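Hi Y.,

Following your request, here is the sequence exactly as I used it, all 491 residues.
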Amino acid sequence: MTFIAAIDQGTTSSRCMVFDATARVVAADQREHRQIFPRPGWVEHDPAEIWRNVQACVSGALERAGIGAGDLAAVGITNQRETTVLWDRRTGAPVHPAVVWQDTRTDGLVAALGAQGGTDRFRAATGLPLATYFSGPKIAWLLDADPSLRERAEAGEVLFGTMDTWLIWNLTGRHVTDVTNASRTMLMNLSTVDWDSSLCDALRVPGAMLPAIAPSSDVYGHGRGVLEGVPVAAAFGDQQAALFGQACFDPGDAKCTYGTGAFLLQNTGTEPVPSRAGLITTVAYQLAGQAPVYALEGSIAVAGALVQWLRDNLGVIATASDMDELAGSVPDSGGAVIVPAFSGLFAPHWRSDARGVIAGLTGYVTKAHLARAALDAVAWQVREVVDAMAADAGLPLAQLRIDGGMTVSPILPALQADILGVPVVRPGIAETTCLGAAYAAGLAVGYWPDLDALRANWHADASWQPRLSDVDREQGYARWRKAVARTLDWV
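Below is the corresponding structure, written out as tokens. Let me know if you'd prefer a different format.
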């Protein structure tokens, strides 16, 4: 019997999961890595630490499964997106800590680029607004900060990659990324699905440092070390991997992953849909030999991170598991509204000048109301993105498939159904990000025959129907938008 492994290199940890042909999780292993904050707004990771952790996770998962690398048909990779790694081609050593997707050090560079065409300067080609979020400005900042690094990059001596590329390089020696990760750099043209020289010139990123772009499901090479001889056969940005793992293969299908941030993606088919409502047009996936499939995405910076903030910074809760009990002890937020714009607002606003607020405070409000307001904040942010998707694509949202750590809450999914006015469904297999990478790797080597086989694996674990009246829903939404307006122009 053979199995499929998936490596999930995330924002706070790395893990490896082993699946069988029915998509059952056979074994898993996970390791956290350090979050480095050198200055306010700066967030870094140590790529070497992450690579060590990934190797340990793979070894741990195989050991727990009681199998060896030879029992794997393939391995897929899914990763935190936009996080930027530069390393020496000859030694393989990182030349700088990884600059994480949350990092805002490029705000001055992004503002300068926007002065010559506005926030939408590159949107027609890339589907992306100008923002500190994406990899291209991070590369430019790193090269500007060290002129000798720029010279080496122009000579092809320093390589760039997102975390998928960093892991594939260490596993196979190949310098390659997939279309989903490439679409998040602000350097790839959505129509050609290739690097765009005019974009590279505008951001002053040398083409010599960029990886080859490949489909999401394809054999990139064969592993070394802990994965000796195993086909490395998929790479996926984490949110696209979750869309794939949720079997959202048809236009209109949508999922939302609730993790550190919240990420809502809707499949829009084989033609990119330009966004006029503040969303990202991105590649959803590409199978080898087929045309790419596109998606609209709404990226929300703070979701689970708000729970962590209440725990670690304010001491409102002692553990994350206390959140539901505290929030569930009150019927509503008591009029309090939290807008967690800790590093600006992402979709659909894209306002780096915004900062978080707690509004509507009265003497009645307790820490229980603040806990409830935090869960409300996650759900209202998703509502804003759903409205933007309806405006852009016109595809009806029949239901929202959900996944991620926050969906174990008995409160948040019900709140989300109420706030959206559509059913919310959680799948039986919760690990959709790893599963998506496993599915794509399995398709590449024939472990699963086609998308219909993957659809057959999907089934619901729980669902929630909306119960809130239209009047109450819209009154709550109006209060939310009023609070959002208070966050703007702070910086």
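Residues 3-239 form a domain with the Nucleotidyltransferase; domain 5 fold (CATH 3.30.420.40).

Thanks again,
Q.
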